[in-house]
Amino acid sequence: FAEHHTAGRHFLQIPGPSNVPDRVLRALDNPTMDHRGPDFGKLGARVLEKTKKIFNTESHVIIYPASGTGAWEAALVNTLSPGDKVLMCETGWFAHLWEEMAGRLGLLTELLKTDWRRGADVEGIEARLRADKNHEIKAVAVVHNETSTGATSRINEVRRAIDAAGHPALLLVDTISSLGSVDYRHDEWGVDVTVSGSQKGLMLPPGLSFNAVSAKALKASETAKLTRSFWDWKPMIASNATGYFPYTPATNMLYALDTALDMLFEEGLDNVFARHDRHGEATRRAVRAWGLEVQCEDPRHYSPVLTAVRLPEGHSANALRATILKKFNMSLGNGLGQLNDRVFRIGHLGDFGDLQLVGTLGGVEMGLAAAGIPHKPGLAAAMQYLNGNG
Ligand code: PLP
Questions:
Q1: In the chain, where does the domain assigned CATH 3.90.1150.10 lie?
Q2: ipTM over 0.90
Q3: Rounded CA gap, 212 and 74, in Å?
Q4: With respect to CATH, is domain 11-20+268-388 assigned 3.90.1150.10?
Q5: Angle (nearest 5°) at CA 79 between 77 and 81
Q6: Does ligand 1 have an atom closer than 6 angstroms to the CB of 64?
Q7: What pTM was estimated for this model as a whole?
Q8: Which residues are annotated as a binding site for substrate?
């Protein structure tokens, strides 16, 4: 293993991949089966049906053997044509990457900027759509939980803004770091394509990604002209009708998905979301008690998935992370793009409990001391909150 290996379990507290529960790991190591054989169709049909519940949708969910980036591309190439205009909200690094991808695919992107300290600018979306009298904008793309900053946008408000402007644009939403950790309603919020991935709230290893597809998006795919082959929804939907896939699916990852979804439903999704909210609040209380600043400034957009923490000027977040990894065997998320070395990110998503949070925050607090970063005690504030909110 790595040279920093110390005794005890590694703390994987980056904001995804998250910790994979042992029960999911046990499901993964079942024998790989014939993906064209009679048993596979039953598994495929069951998993496809169950997956819809996590998106809160009655329509199709496509499962790709790919990372989230693949599902980003799938959402764009299935619904849009070269030169189409897409309105994107630059909430942080991941929104930026999706925008760059759209540009490379031949779409015209227009960016609504933020200061990377809050979620999507809903008023800005409405104003821009109202001004677009000729309906040149074909899609609005928003990252639900911006993993680089720890800001969660209100997708229901984005929907209302589009409706208030009376605009026909498709709504594309990235839930790669929110699905399974934060309440999400594909149908109710009128989302056209929801993009997601396996390695965060769904508690799986990296390797699967998703598109939930509305009837309107499906209709758009009939005339959309961007080149697509591997990502094409059409052969997927045709094969999925009987529980199969047009090419070799990630068989063992589907066993794992089957089990992980069972675990989420057994706990109850509302309980899962409340657990993440509570861990987010406990974390922010520790950060404030340390005398540090949370990157997200708008309390309405605080992320239940992760907390990005700003360090005072003159202190290196990367050096702090390196110290914590070396001394305490814990991985924390790095600052991305303009936040490189300015913030570190604490992941509190997926299969995660109170004592894991206490251990995580304890590791950060000891790391702050070891790295010589001025701070006051903070762990106690988190523990006090957890005790009062059992
Ligand atoms: N979008 C968001 C919000 C993410 O957090 C990530 C990964 O962290 C991605 C997109 C990219 O997904 P992947 O790395 O699985 O391709």
A1: 11-20+268-388
A2: yes
A3: 11
A4: yes
A5: 70
A6: no
A7: 0.98
A8: 345
